[in-house]
Design a protein that fits this description.
Blueprint (H helix, E strand, L loop, with lengths): L9 H8 E4 L2 E5 L5 E5 L2 H16 L6
Antiparallel strand pairs: 1-2, 2-3
Length: 62
């Protein structure tokens, strides 16, 4: 899920958001939190989607 103002660089930002560390995958939120670990990059990508959905629906406290 991408905000309209992020459309120009959406793929670059998503790529930089998911990072490997110590043989695990993590993602960074816009708020600066690091979420993980995940076993694979694809699982981290799914984690990003779930996180965005939760934040968009105000299920996660800011």
């Amino acid at each position: 899920m991408t905000r309209v103002q992020d459309m120009g660089n959406a793929s670059f930002k998503r790529y930089k958001r998911i990072v490997p560390f110590n043989n695990k995958w993590w993602f960074r939120t816009r708020e600066g939190e690091v979420m993980g670990p995940y076993i694979s990059r694809s699982q981290a990508e799914e984690g990003v989607e779930v996180y965005v959905a939760l934040v968009s629906n105000h299920f996660v406290a800011a």
